[in-house]
């Protein structure tokens, strides 16, 4: 009998990439458009594995219901796992993930946000389409010689650091577990968070969301930053207290923000809401700034990444099914 997988939050591009890779596995994949939540967890009855993404909910209620429904594996098709209650899953439901699908995609996208905001490409695009060829307000700065602060120096940040070196930037980094060998090879320094905040012209977030990192960018940390700092977040929305960010933007302490993630993104991101009004006032305020670019958690979204996500997810499920070691298991 074919192994059954309930696939939540399915988009046309997911279905295309998973169906292609599934040609070699022949799993019975049931694609559901909705995000997994306590109301639709009933759809997991009788399936072997459940596949979810960043905005699905796998809290204790959902996990218990999946276990009761006979689900044997939770397969995340993403790297982050902050949406899963690992304590609730422990000993009941193994959780696997895709630790790296294309760190290049996210690193390149972080750089794209920096360059767009700095050189105001997003504004120039609209101006010239409207016959406005003036340059007023579009002035940027040379990246060369500026200081960038990188928080979290894992797979994505390491690639970004190499790219930024090519720009001739001075790189400061902070990580709970500094990779001193890498720092020596690439010629950058690990510093304290306070020093990073104080010195950086651009700050880019690449650490996971944990109890420790939640809201690390807040009123207090913003007050320690340089006037006119640019903040880039392709990590997780809750790394930033958005209300404090908005205050920093209004006070012009923060000159620009590139946000691929947003703390309340679950309601909006990946969905076409263009025929509705935005009833999230915080998001609406963010979208009103001409020095803020908000994108819909798309940093990962390249052809290569989608293919790798499907390959690794189905391989993880195959490993579980055939009792092979789970190399990508998330262990609490
Ligand atoms: N926007 C997107 O599309 C997208 C895609 C993939 C990943 N991400 C996010 O990017 C993050 C980084 O991804 P990665 O693949 O480089 O992860 P990684 O696990 O390779 O690196 C994370 C780094 O953060 C460090 N870290 C952990 N806790 C920290 C703390 N309290 N302070 C400072 N550093 C800390 C770790 O030591 C590690 O070096 C992920 O956690 C995920 O949230 C976003």
From TrEMBL:
Domain D-isomer specific 2-hydroxyacid dehydrogenase catalytic: 6-330
Organism per entry: Parabacteroides acidifaciens
Pfam families: 2-Hacid_dh, 2-Hacid_dh_C
Gene Ontology MF terms in the entry: D-lactate dehydrogenase (NAD+) activity; NAD binding
Domain of life of the native organism: Bacteria
D-isomer specific 2-hydroxyacid dehydrogenase NAD-binding domain span: 111-299
Alphabetized CDD domains for the sequence: LDH_like_2 (cd12183)
Record-given protein name: 2-hydroxyacid dehydrogenase
Family assignment from sequence similarity: Belongs to the D-isomer specific 2-hydroxyacid dehydrogenase family.
Parts of the chain that traverse the membrane: none
InterPro entries from the UniProt entry: D-isomer_2_OHA_DH_cat_dom, D-isomer_DH_CS, D-isomer_DH_NAD-bd, D-LDH-like, NAD(P)-bd_dom_sf
Keywords annotated in UniProt: NAD, Oxidoreductase
């Amino acid at each position: 009998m074919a192994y059954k997988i309930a696939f939540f939050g399915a988009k046309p591009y997911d279905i295309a990439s998973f169906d292609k890779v599934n040609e070699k596995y022949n799993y019975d994949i049931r694609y559901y458009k909705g995000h997994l939540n306590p109301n639709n967890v009933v759809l997991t009855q009788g399936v072997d594995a459940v596949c979810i993404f960043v905005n699905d909910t796998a809290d204790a209620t959902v996990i218990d219901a999946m276990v009761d429904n006979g689900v044997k594996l939770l397969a995340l098709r993403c790297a982050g796992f902050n949406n899963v209650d690992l304590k609730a899953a422990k000993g009941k439901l193994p959780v696997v993930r895709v630790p790296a699908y294309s760190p290049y995609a996210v690193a390149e996208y972080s750089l794209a946000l920096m360059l767009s905001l700095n050189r105001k490409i997003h504004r120039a695009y609209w101006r010239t389409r409207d016959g406005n060829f003036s340059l007023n307000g579009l002035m940027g700065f040379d990246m060369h010689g500026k200081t960038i602060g990188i928080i979290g120096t894992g797979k994505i940040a390491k690639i970004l650091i190499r790219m930024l070196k090519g720009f001739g930037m001075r790189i400061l980094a902070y990580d709970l577990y500094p990779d001193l060998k890498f720092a020596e090879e690439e010629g950058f320094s690990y510093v304290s968070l306070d020093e990073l905040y104080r010195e950086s012209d651009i700050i880019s977030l690449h650490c996971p969301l944990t109890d420790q990192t939640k809201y690390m960018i807040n009123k207090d940390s913003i007050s320690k930053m340089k006037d006119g700092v640019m903040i880039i977040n392709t990590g997780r929305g809750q790394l930033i207290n958005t209300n404090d960010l908005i205050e920093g933007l209004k006070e012009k302490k923060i000159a620009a923000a590139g946000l691929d993630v947003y703390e309340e993104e679950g309601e909006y991101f990946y969905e076409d809401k263009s025929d509705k009004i935005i009833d999230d006032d915080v998001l609406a305020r963010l979208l009103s700034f001409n020095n803020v670019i908000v994108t819909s958690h798309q940093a990962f979204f390249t052809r290569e990444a989608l293919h790798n996500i499907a390959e690794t997810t189905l391989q993880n499920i195959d490993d579980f099914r055939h009792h092979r070691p789970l190399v990508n298991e998330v262990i609490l």
